[in-house]
Amino acid sequence: MHLMIQFKKHHILNVLQKERLLGMLKSQIKDYYKKHSLSRICQGDILRDFEIYTVDNNYAQNKESLEYVVVVTQDCDLESFSKFPISEDDKPEEFSQYLPNLFLLPAFPAEKLREGLHLEDLYAIKTKRITSDDWKKLKDNQMHRYHHFPEKVDWQIPELVIDFKIYYTAHTHYTLMQYKEKYVATFNELFRERLSQRFVDYLGRIALPNIDK
Q1: Which among 90-94, 131-135, 171-175, 207-211 has the top mean pLDDT?
Q2: Which residues of 81-93 are buried (b: 16+ CB within 10 A; e: fewer)?
Q3: Neighbours of 79 (CB within 10 A)
Q4: Strand 101-109 relative to strand 168-171: parallel, antiparallel, unpaired?
Q5: Which of 122, 206, 112, 211 is nearest to 162 (CA)?
Q6: Angle CA(41)–CA(42)–CA(46) in degrees, nearest 5?
Q7: Cα(196)–Cα(40) distance, integer angstroms
Q8: How far apart are CA 19 and CA 41, in angstroms?
Q9: CA distance 157 to 159
Q10: How many CB atoms lie within 10 A of CB 12?
Q11: Torsion from C-alpha of 115, 164, 76, 13, nearest 10 degrees
């Protein structure tokens, strides 16, 4: 009985501690976005007019410009990679945290996506227009495929939507070449983690077959 009481007290204290920490974090976040010193790439960074190479159906290489992209590579990996030693010769470096590529999600202007035109320039594909009822769900992030985030006009961030079916990898050093010039802002931590969680959930969904009973 005594052990059960102690266990319950310990559990309650852990829950209260977590709630207190979460409350402190929430109290420090006043906006979706923030800016940082650009000392390294961070998870949740938003880049504008990002150039990337793609291969089309005829295996021809094309250089595309993405209006906006969001870095979703885990921040711990990005932080570890930022410590990569720069060699002054051609000797291979001993480094177990090397990160050859970054995971990027393109973000599309909201009205273009709603009208089904967000893939037209990249892939010559149109999608169905999103109805008013579904658009309301999308803006509340209640549609699994999409993630909406609001505009911040003074930082040149329009209303944007991510389509989780569309994602890219880009060479890390190639991204670094553009990084400071293309940087716009960064998602605050809670919004960054929410985006990553929803993206992973979308990729991990399981389509079950219809079984005749």
Answers
A1: 131-135
A2: beeeeeeeeeeee
A3: 14
A4: antiparallel
A5: 112
A6: 90
A7: 19
A8: 29
A9: 7
A10: 10
A11: 100
Backbone phi, psi, residue 110, to 5°: -60, -45
**Token pair recorded at residue 23:** 């409350």
Quote the longest CA-to-CA distance of the chain.
Answer: 72
Instruction: Specify the DSSP element, H or E, that contains 202.
Output: helix 189-203
Neighbours of 34 (CB within 10 A): 17
Q: Which helix (H) or strand (E) holds 24?
A: helix 2-28
Tell me the pTM.
0.81
In degrees and rounded to multiples of 5, residue 46 shows phi and psi of: -110, 125
Question: Which residues have C-beta within 8 Å of that of residue 140, sequence separation ≥ 6?
Answer: 148
**Pairwise CA distance, residues 137 & 24, whole Å:** 29
At 150-208, the pLDDT tens digits run 999 999 999 999 999 999 999 999 999 999 999 999 999 999 999 999 999 999 988 88
